[in-house]
Design goal:
heterodimer, A: 234 residues, Rossmann fold, four-stranded antiparallel beta sheet, 33% helix, globular, B: 247 residues, 2 domains, 72% helix
């Protein structure tokens, strides 16, 4: 099976930093597979997400070596809107991702940017809301929803662009147990639909939905043995 | 509360432009009063009541008084109404200028309150349909959406300071200002972080993929909108003509 997203010998160092956060990282995620990346704070988990999603080098710059292939195409050569149709990213804080006054407007934002016809936008919104189980909240104000519901709205907004790869950058870290449960259920569903999923995590109980767990430490990505380095030192 | 007249946000924007332009251009006090009355009628029609607006304006009374006094004190010429020795403190010309400025402020504030009667999502859609670039329209969205959150955040920080035993009401003004300055850095950092994350989230949802965008919703001007815009135009022309005749 060919991987939907691949990182080949990926190395990265921010301009003002001495340290390479990523050091010849290799990663391949297939369709229908969920890979979790764990690691201590500040080891570069989010930087890995930024590299995979093209935010590095398109938004943030630094010394980047190696390449990331998205559906066989190098992300370096793609524009962010092109990437957005193939890869969706759900960030940690739902409040920093949602900006519209209704759930419907929030979901319409992406397809509107792609200049899709109104009927298609409406169909995508309906489908995404049904998928995340929030069809009854279509006209609700996202600000008035619970943290878990807001994160599901953020996910639905990404799903409206119909990406084949999804990145969850600590998307469950600010949610209560019910919110985490709902996001994990969604990850399982998306996996079953054949999406390739990369999830950045630091809570062991969230790793159960992943097929593989990798540890990012000192810039290297290695199979996770079940204990974080800090805990090993203790 | 009375019945509301449902108008397109573009019609409200046109009304605001007409009223505030007249308010700034006209100098005659009687005409300024007429414009203010028209603005109040428009708000009453759009919001159903102006009591809420009057309540909000109450907060500005002190500011309004200061404006009138400053304008009247610093305007030269005219007959003295209040003198201190040889110096004219307030003159009749100064008073007229002060009331003029006050009326202009009120017209602009009341006219702007018209926009507050429109739903934010309709305002944005209206701007987009007026062919305002999406970047600018979304800047307006961000301002409307995040300014209240910013205020809440500042209030939370102030509460946190007071919970540490600082009674802001009892400390001297200079120390209080210094205390507020401590809030500025964390507030600014929080705003910048939020702005950075939001712009990333927007970029990753194909923002600016094309110079134009399509829209899920479309606003349509109704006969009432055309009627109101025509009335506003006639009113603007009549006031402008009167201003010319009276000058």
């Amino acid at each position: 099976m060919s991987a939907l997203i691949t990182a080949k010998d990926l190395s990265f160092r921010y301009d003002k930093s001495e340290r390479r956060l990523l050091d010849r990282v290799n990663l391949a995620v297939n369709a229908g597979e969920a890979v979790a990346v764990v690691g201590l704070s500040g080891v570069g988990k989010s930087t890995l997400c930024y590299c995979l999603s093209g935010i590095i080098p398109h938004v943030y710059q630094g010394e980047l070596e190696g390449e990331v292939l998205l559906d066989g195409m190098p992300v370096k050569a793609m524009s962010l809107p092109q990437i957005a149709t193939k890869l969706g990213i759900v960030f940690q804080n739902p409040d920093h991702q949602l900006f519209s006054f209704t759930v419907e407007d929030e979901l319409a934002f992406g397809p509107e940017n792609l200049c899709l016809p109104r009927e298609e936008i409406d169909a995508r919104i309906t489908s995404a809301l049904e998928k995340v189980g929030l069809a009854h909240l279509r006209l609700a104000n996202p600000q008035q929803l619970s943290g878990g519901q807001r994160q599901l709205v953020a996910l639905a907004a990404v799903l409206c662009l119909q990406p084949s790869v999804l990145i969850f950058d600590e998307a469950m870290s600010q949610l209560d147990s019910d919110g985490k449960k709902r996001i994990k259920e969604m990850i399982l569903r998306l996996k079953a639909e054949g999406k390739a999923i990369v999830m950045i995590e630091h809570e062991p109980e969230n790793l159960e939905v992943a097929d593989r767990v990798l540890l990012l430490a000192e810039g290297k990505l290695v199979p996770f043995a079940g204990v974080l380095p800090e805990a090993t030192e203790g | 509360m009375g019945t509301r007249m449902s108008l397109d946000p573009r019609t409200k924007l046109y009304l605001v432009l007409c009223l505030s332009t007249l308010g700034v251009a006209v100098t005659d006090l009687r005409l300024l009063l007429v414009i203010l009355a028209a603005a109040a009628v428009a708000v009453k029609a759009a919001a159903g009541s102006i009591l809420n607006l009057l309540g909000k304006l109450k907060r500005f009374i002190f500011l309004f008084l200061i404006i009138v006094v400053i304008q009247s004190v610093f305007t030269r010429g005219g007959t003295a109404v209040l003198r201190l020795g040889q110096i004219n403190i307030i003159t009749d010309t100064g008073l007229v200028r002060g009331v003029q400025t006050l009326l202009r402020f009120l017209i602009v504030l009341v006219a702007a309150a018209l926009m507050a009667t429109a739903k934010p999502r309709d305002i944005i859609q209206g701007l987009i349909q007026l062919r305002i670039p999406p970047e600018l329209a979304f800047m307006v969205t961000m301002a409307i959406r995040f300014l209240p959150l910013l205020r809440d955040e500042a209030v939370d920080m102030l509460t946190a300071i007071q919970l540490r035993g600082v009674n802001l009401k009892k400390i001297p003004l200079l120390r209080r200002l210094k205390m507020y300055s401590y809030l500025l850095a964390p507030l600014l950092i929080s705003v910048l972080l939020k702005a950075r994350d939001l712009s990333l989230a927007m970029e990753m949802r194909a923002f600016r993929a094309f110079p134009r965008r399509t829209s899920l919703r479309t606003l349509y001007l109704q006969p009432a909108d055309y009627l109101v815009m025509a009335m506003a135009t006639v009113f603007a022309v009549a006031v402008a003509a009167s201003a010319i005749l009276l000058s």
